[in-house]
Specification:
GO terms for molecular function: ATP binding; hydrolase activity; P-type potassium transmembrane transporter activity. This protein is mostly helical. Helix content is 44%, strand content 8%. A 3-stranded antiparallel sheet has the order 3-5-4. A two-stranded antiparallel ribbon has the order 1-2. A hairpin with a 2-residue loop joins strand 1 and strand 2.
Length: 186
């Protein structure tokens, strides 16, 4: 037993040193070469600073709505819901989101609503949504802003981020960048 305790204590001390000092310093050092020194991409719009990589709340009819957040877009407390797909409270919450969306988008059928517009992401801070989530909102925004739907669809195409190397992950759109570009349309 004595022969196993000393190596275990040494290994524990080495791992504590590695994972609490060396590894964090290495990650921090690498992050210094990233844009904005690893603090995330920041956009300034209308005198306010916004983090591009953290979901923002957009609920006005003149904007593309964001993906719902289980943590009310609070970056200090990332997290999702622990409610399963058969939980009655969760189903009622999703149905309320569907109903709200249909009230504001009367030309859309319930079957056309993408899941990412009525369910929160695992982190509750997802800044992106699907291309389909943007396209189903075009009619409402065109009517509210008096902009041609073709122009809005072109904007969506311009803001669409392709999958990594053309094959890893889906196409996606950053909602904040899309809405800023929408504000800049003439």
């Amino acid at each position: 037993m004595k022969k196993h305790i000393l190596p275990a204590i040494k290994l524990t001390v080495v791992m504590i040193l590695f994972f609490t000092v060396i590894y964090p310093l290495a990650v921090w050092g690498i992050a210094q070469f990233a844009p904005n020194a690893g603090k995330g991409e920041i956009i300034e719009h209308n005198g306010k600073k916004h983090y591009v990589n953290i979901g923002q709340s957009f609920t006005e009819d003149k904007y593309f709505w964001s993906r719902p957040s289980a943590v009310d877009y609070n970056a200090a407390g990332s997290g999702g819901s622990n409610k399963g797909p058969s939980n009655e409270e969760y189903l009622a919450e999703v149905q309320a989101r569907i109903d709200t969306f249909l009230v504001h988008n009367p030309r859309i059928d319930k079957s056309e609503i993408p899941v990412d517009l009525v369910t929160a992401s695992g982190s509750g801070l997802d800044p992106n949504f699907s291309v389909q989530a943007a396209k189903v909102q075009v009619a409402r925004i065109a009517e509210t802003r008096g902009i041609d739907e073709v122009k809005l669809n072109q904007l969506i195409d311009e803001q669409t981020e392709k999958p990594l190397w053309g094959m890893f992950g889906p196409e996606k759109i950053n909602v904040l960048k899309l809405n800023i570009a929408l504000d800049q349309l003439k």
